[in-house]
Design goal:
The structure holds 2 protein chains of 2 kinds. Chain A folds into 2 domains: 62 residues, Multidrug-efflux Transporter Regulator, Chain: A, Domain 2; 153 residues, Mannitol-specific EII, Chain A. Chain A contains 10 helices and 7 strands. Chain A has a 5-stranded mixed β-sheet with strand order 3-6-7-5-4, sandwiched between helices. Chain B has 3 domains: 205 residues, Clc chloride channel; 206 residues, Orthogonal Bundle (Clc chloride channel); 133 residues, CBS-domain, CATH 3.10.580.10. Chain B has a 3-stranded mixed β-sheet. A two-stranded antiparallel sheet of chain B has the order 4-5. In chain B, helix 10 packs across helix 14 and helix 14 packs across helix 15. Classes of the chains: A alpha/beta, B mainly alpha. At the A-B interface, helix 2 of A face helix 1, helix 7 and helix 24 of B.
Chain lengths: 229, 573
């Protein structure tokens, strides 16, 4: 069935102001039935071909045309997806990071590459945040792997020297994986909000159960929402 | 709105999306009407001149050109209320700025007025008036049939082409003149209907007036020396063209200062021409008789007399046109050109002897192409007009040289052609597919960016920082909370250093740091001016304000998007 559009729909379809289309019709650049300036209507296929001949883009606006799967932006969901692991083995920073990468939801065929990126990033500058916590992550977001944002929590068996700002050995790792920069920044800022609070850090040092950690994170996330950040 | 049956017919054609076919059919119609108008004018002038020639034996004959010009001026000013002159600049203005809209009365007003001026002996040509008529016929037919602006302009061109084609029996000259001078655009969508109209116009002209080449001549066979001599002739015609253009323009300015009514001026000017005509009747009327005898080498006067005739013809033309007579410069241009050509030939003869050159009639042809090409700064028009009206294809090589060189040399002295100079100075000339055209067509409201978050006058720096977090823009308008009136703009670039001073967050209000008198544009402003303002103040985007209301922003980025789209749409077929 032929789909017909009125001028408003046609303008939306071509991402142009209605006024421009009306002017083009009056000037004769857009062929429309003569005398039909009252209510010209266009067949969709014809309009598409016309737009193609003029190198105009068609379809819904650029914003809608790239539908990104809204990734989980919530800290709790990311923590849940990443999992919480206690007694993670590792005598060096590299070993601990490699072990954490194995525990993370990164697909197996990307694991080697991901671990390499993780170590590279760590060499560039320590991810130790102080207060015994490190947030290791890869420099580039993991794209095209279908991986959703996740934070894998690892309580280390032996605290390690991450060369953190405060020099304290690190006993908790939050391995952050994100599909894009904005999600990365978003989760990082929420995590940082939690870590600013000493009660949260103390709570971590007790190596809580996954359920308790998620509950605690949930409480903090509610505070963030309250603060409007 | 109810449709009349004609619009209905055009509509059906359009619904089939056969706009090109519709245009060609309409072109034939316009061509025929325009051809009839040209034939009518030709024969009316012929009859009127014949009538006036009966008065030759009376002493008061010199007043006839003045009377004709005065009547024509009265007719134009009082009855049809149109401007004097030949109308081509008005036509080009309409094509440039008014989408080819012309009044119906233009289709006959200049026919009558130029008939009065020329028939009574004024030194002017009937071609430009008939071009105006043909174009007005084209425009009105297009309006009746409901064609959009671009096609209306094409039909205006059809009328112009058919007019020239019919009056000169010169189809190619009609097409080339229209594309080169009137429309300034050669595209497939224009050329086909215009070509068809020229054919129709020429044929109608031939049916009504007979098929005769206006200036048939003996066979010329120009050689190498003639081509060389053509360069010199081109210089001569260029200088004469510039002189004639300036004489007509200055004469117009001088006459305008005269404290008299337009009709009085025309009477006086025409009488002056009549007085010249008492002594030298060769300068009167369109003067094609002179051209004919010059081409046939039957012109007896010597070099000095020829030069005097040339000067007097130029004087008579500038008097007629400057004082408000109605007519064009084609015919006087051809006469002046043939005088120049023959005078040049005789000068060469005097200096070097002319054993190796073609006969002097050949130089009359070359001179005509030089003057038309020079005055109109349209080399192809000059070239094809002469080829058409003399069937002089064998002289094509020196013709090309003369008309191209003459046109280029003229451009050196006069930045624009005779038709376009005043128009361009007044900003009335916009050619299709140019930067000016695109910026003229696009409106501020079409490129307006409305997704702008605004601030209120009670807001503090902290609120601004919060806005910045969610906005992707660098400019924030500040509006009055109660009335919504526009108060000023905040440019991030200017307040950036303070955004990080937390101690200022509560203490500083947005009204303290905004620019209360930012450069702004109104929605009616032309985009050319907007861009000029942006360049001048080095701004990338400007607020659009109507009265006290903020409407949105206009930025170079969005403008470029629209500009490019507009250019593509306007220039692809």
């Amino acid at each position: 069935m032929l789909m017909r559009m009125n001028i408003r729909q046609a303008a939306d379809y071509l991402n142009l102001p209605v006024q421009t289309l009306q002017r083009w019709i009056a000037q004769g650049f857009l062929p429309a039935p003569a005398g039909a300036s009252l209510a010209p209507s266009f067949e969709k296929d014809w309009l598409t071909n016309w737009a193609k001949s003029k190198n105009l883009s068609v379809g819904a606006g650029a914003k809608e045309s790239v539908p990104k799967a809204t990734p989980a932006r919530s800290l709790v969901q990311a923590l849940e997806r990443g999992g919480v692991f206690t007694d993670v083995q590792g005598d060096t920073v590299d070993e601990a990071l490699a072990q954490a990468a194995v525990l993370s939801p990164v697909p197996r065929d990307h694991l080697t590459e991901f671990t390499r990126q993780l170590l590279d990033r760590e060499r560039l500058c320590s991810t130790g945040q102080g207060k015994g916590v490190a947030i290791p992550h890869a420099r580039r977001p993991i794209e095209d792997t279908g991986v959703e944002a996740s934070i894998t929590t690892c309580f280390l068996n032996t605290p390690l020297d991450f060369k953190a700002i405060d020099g304290k050995p690190v006993s908790t790792l939050f391995l952050l994986i994100s599909p894009s920069v904005d999600v990365h920044l978003h989760l990082l800022s929420r995590l940082a909000f939690c870590l600013r609070d000493n009660s949260f850090v103390d709570f971590l040092s007790k190596k809580p159960l996954p359920v308790d950690l998620l509950a605690m994170a949930g409480e903090f996330e509610a505070k963030v929402a309250e603060a409007g950040l | 709105m109810t449709e009349n049956p004609i619009t209905g017919m055009a509509r059906r054609l359009f619904i089939l999306r056969h706009e090109k076919v519709a245009l060609v059919i309409a072109g034939v119609l316009v061509g025929c009407c325009s051809g009839v108008a040209a034939a009518l004018l030709s024969s009316a002038i012929e009859h009127l001149s014949e009538l006036c020639s009966h008065a030759k034996q009376y002493w008061w004959v010199f007043i006839l050109p003045g009377l004709g010009a005065a009547l024509s001026s009265l007719f134009l000013n009082k009855i049809v209320r149109e401007g004097a002159g030949h109308g081509v600049p008005e036509l080009i203005y309409s094509v440039s700025r008014r989408g080819g809209l012309l009044r119906f009365r233009s289709s006959f007003s200049r026919l009558i007025s130029s008939c009065l001026t020329i028939g009574a002996g004024g030194s002017a040509g009937p071609e430009a008036p008939v071009v105006m008529s043909g174009s007005a016929i084209g425009s009105n037919i297009a309006q009746k049939l409901g064609f959009p602006a671009r096609h209306r302009i094409t039909l205006v061109g059809c009328g112009a082409a058919a007019a020239i084609a019919s009056i000169f029996n010169a189809p190619i000259a009609g097409i080339v003149f229209t594309l080169e001078v009137v429309l300034g655009e050669w595209t497939s969508i224009n050329v086909i209907p215009i070509g068809v109209a020229a054919v129709a116009g020429t044929h109608v002209g031939r049916l009504l007036q007979g098929n005769s080449i206006r200036f048939t001549h003996a066979h010329f066979n120009p050689g190498t020396w003639d081509i060389a001599a053509a360069f010199g002739l081109a210089l001569a015609t260029a200088l004469v063209s510039v002189a004639l253009s300036r004489m007509i323009r200055h004469s117009g300015k001088i006459w305008a200062k005269l404290p008299s009514s337009p009709a009085g001026r025309a009477l006086l000017g025409g009488t002056c021409v009549g007085l010249i005509g008492l002594g030298v009747p060769q300068v009167l009327g369109e003067g094609y008789g002179q051209v004919y005898s010059l081409i046939h080498g039957q012109y007896s006067p010597g070099l000095l007399l020829l030069c005097a005739l040339l000067a007097l013809k130029m004087l008579a033309t500038s008097l007629t046109l400057g004082s408000g007579g109605s007519g064009g410069i084609f015919a006087p241009g051809l006469v002046v050109g043939s005088f120049t050509g023959v005078a040049y030939f005789r000068l060469l003869d005097l200096l070097f002897g002319v054993n190796h050159l073609a006969p002097e009639g050949c130089y009359a042809l070359l001179g005509m192409a030089g003057i038309i090409g020079g005055m109109l700064q349209a080399p192809l028009t000059g070239l094809f007009l002469v080829v058409d009206i003399t069937s002089g294809y064998e002289v094509i090589l020196p013709l090309i040289v003369v008309s191209l060189v003459s046109s280029s040399v003229c451009r050196y002295f006069e930045s624009d052609s005779f038709y376009l100079k005043d128009l361009k100075a007044a900003g009335g000339l916009i050619r299709p597919g140019t930067d000016e055209r695109v910026l003229e067509d696009l409106q501020v409201s079409e490129v307006l960016e409305k997704d702008v978050s605004h601030l209120h006058n009670h807001m503090s720096l902290a609120d601004l920082v919060a806005q910045i977090k969610t906005s992707h823009r660098n400019h924030f308008p500040v509006l009055e909370q109660e009335t919504g009136n526009f108060l000023g703009m905040i440019d991030l670039a200017k307040v950036r250093p303070y955004l990080f001073s937390r101690e200022l967050y509560g203490a500083v209000l947005v009204v303290d740091i905004m620019d209360p008198y930012p450069p702004a544009v109104s929605p009616e402003e032309r985009l050319t001016d907007v861009l000029e303002l942006m360049d001048r103040i080095q701004a990338f985007s400007l607020p659009v304000v109507s009265g006290a209301r903020f409407l949105g922003m206009v930025s170079k980025g969005t403008l470029l998007d629209h500009y490019r789209r507009e250019l593509i749409v306007q220039t692809t077929y």
